[in-house]
Input
Amino acid sequence: MLSSQPRVLCLSGLDPAGGAGLQADIETLAAHGVHAFGLITALTVQDSHNVRRVVATDPALLDEQLSVLLADARPDAVKLGLLGGSAQLPVIATHLARLAVPVVCDPVLRAGGGTDLATAQFPAALRARLLPLVTVLTPNAAEARRLVPAAATLAECAAALLADGCARVLVTGGDEPGASVINWAWRGDGSTRHWQWPRLPETFHGAGCTLASAIAARLALGDGLDDALDAGQRWTQAALTRAISIGSGRRIPGRLPA
Ligand code: PLP
Output
């Protein structure tokens, strides 16, 4: 009997520690019964504490990989994570424009351990080249501010990012102070939703990748945007409460069956 699964195309970095990046995507998607197409945008040197070095994939190789894969197979959604610099943006944008499926973009600009993962020009280039093609953008509060440095508030950040062309902005508040974590979503019409989650007593490695992949999984399974944001956050929060230790640094979400 023929069978098929929903599929998500992931463009992400490779974290040898297996907490973030493409491994986080594959584990999250598999846990949702969704197949992952996986392209590595950058190799990294890192452990469970921090990223030490990023080596970007040649944009021409990425283009060839995407051309060959997408001539054969069609994903139901796309998840973008760490990208290998501005030179990859035109290639990714060209393929996304042809695909016309929901795109979840986690604009990874800095590692939780503190290493800067983007050049000074990258945030503006990402906004100009990719946001018109993005369905859900999932910055944390620091990333939202860095994407829109002129904004005075997170609401102003979201308004500018929506004006660039994405359909929803979900700003996660794990990096903000407060007794609970508050995540805010803005729609293009200016309406908002927010979610309040218990603040867990530690910071994690790979939480953002996990959340963006969980939302992409729900979209690939057919959820509407609002349901995908609900379910993706619920699933990620549950994975964080089951976090596992893989080294001497931050723990990673528990994405696999115990
Ligand atoms: N490495 C890769 C490949 C990533 O994609 C990311 C974040 O998305 C990181 C490292 C940093 O992850 P974190 O900030 O959760 O430690």
